[in-house]
Amino acid sequence: MSTLALLGIGAGSIGLLLLLIIRWQVHAFVAMMLVSFLVAFATGMPIGDIISTLVAGMGGTLGSVAILVALGSMLGRMIEVSGGAASLANRFTQLLGPTRVPMALTAAALVLAIPVFFDVGFIILVPIVYGFCKAAGVNPIKFGLPVAGIMLAAHVVVPPHPGIVGGAAIVKGDIGWITIIGLAICIPLAALSQVVAGWLNRKGYPMLPTTAEQFAAFGNSEDSQTSKAAKAPGVGTIMALIIIPLALIMAGTTGATLLPKGDNLRNVLGFIGSPIFALMVAVGLAMFLLGRNQGWNRERTNAIMESALPPAATVILVTGAGGVFAKVLTASGIGAALSQSLTATHLPLILLAFIISLALRAAQGSATVAIITTCGLLADAMAGGGYSPLQVALLTVAIGFGSLGLSHVNDSGFWIVTRYLGLSVGDGLRTWTVLTTVLGLAGFALTALLWVLVA
Fold this sequence. Notes:
- The chain is mainly α and 455 residues long.
- The protein has helices at 3-23, 28-42, 47-82, 84-96, 101-112, 118-136, 140-157, 162-171, 175-200, 209-217, 222-231, 235-258, 264-272, 275-294, 298-307, 309-331, 334-345, 349-364, 367-383, 389-402, 412-421, 425-454.
- It is built from 22 helices and no strands.
C-alpha cells in the first residue's frame, strides 16, 4: 500500500476516534478497540494476524502499566484517607508563613500530585483550599487555580501516572529519566503557575451560586476538619513515602548511566531502582507507617487499598486500548509511513511530538489518550532516529506537555476545577484554559532547551 494511502487511513482513524469519543460519547476503551479493528482491516493486515496483534498491543503496554497504576493508586489512596494532604499543606504554610499561603499550597500540591491522580488529588485539596481562603477572606479561585495547574502538570509528565507510563511503554522510554526530567521541569512550573494564576486573578470573578453556598457552609464543618487534621500523619512520613520511591528510581537510572553493563552494582541498582520495586517499597511502608498511625487493622488497610482499584481499572483499560491502537498503527505500516513523511518535513521531531499531542488533547479532551496516541504515531520515528535513552525521554516528556494545554469543555478536569472554584464556563476558559496552555508551552520550552543541550 502506498505511503499516501497509509497516511490517509491513519488520519481517518484519528478522525473517527475523535468522532466516536466526542460526538457519539462512546467510551474511550471501546472506541480505541473498534478503531484498531477497522485500521487492521483497512490496511490489509492478514486476518489471522489481527487478534494476535491486538493481544500483543494490550499485553505489551499493560505488562508494566497495570502494576504501576495499581500500586500508585493504592499509595495515593492510603495518603488520601489518612489525612496526609492536610499535613503537607499545613506544614508548608508554617514553613513559608501565612502571607505566602498560595505558594505553600502550590508547593504541597506538587508533592501530593506525584502519587495521586489529578482529579482525586484536587478534590482532596479542595477542603484545605476552602479553609485557607475563608481565613483570608478571598474566593477559592485565588488559591485553588495555581494548585490545580501544577497538579495537572505533574499528572501528565511524572510517573506513575497512566498517560506518561503508557506512552513510555510504547516508545520504550526510560521511566527513570522521564521521572527526573518531569520533576525537574515541574518545579519551575510551580512558580510559574503561581505567577500566571496571580495575573489571571487580577480582577475578580463572581462565584457560581451553588459554589458560593457550598463555600459559605464550609465553616460549619471546621471543627471536624480540625480534628481530622490532628489525627493526620506527620509531614515527614508523607514526604518519606513520596521521596523514597523517587530516590530508588533515580539511583537505578544513575547506575545505568554511569556504570558499565554487567557490573554487579549496576545490576543491584537496576533492580532496586525499577519503578515496580520502588512503588512496592512505598506501598509496604505506607501499610506499616500510616496503618499504625491511624490504628488501622489488617482488614481496614486491605479495604482502603482495594477501594483504590475500581477507579484505576478504567484507567488501566483505556491505557491498554491505547497500546492496542499504537500496535496496530505500527504493525500496519502507518507508523513507518508517518516516520518517513515527518523526516521529509525537516521539522524537529520534538516540535512535531508536542504539536500532535496538543492537537489531540484539544480535540478529544483526554490527556492520557493524547499521550498514548501520539506515542503510537511516533514510535517508529523515535525508534529509527538513533536517539539516546535521554533523548527518547525528552521526546516523551514533550508529548506529555502537549497534552497539558488547551483544557476546555471536553475535558472532565475542566468541569472539576470550574465547579469547585465557582467559575462559569466563560470564566473557566479565560482562566483555567489559559493557565494550562501557558504551563504546557513553558514545559515544552524547557524540554526543548534540554534537548538542545544534550543533542
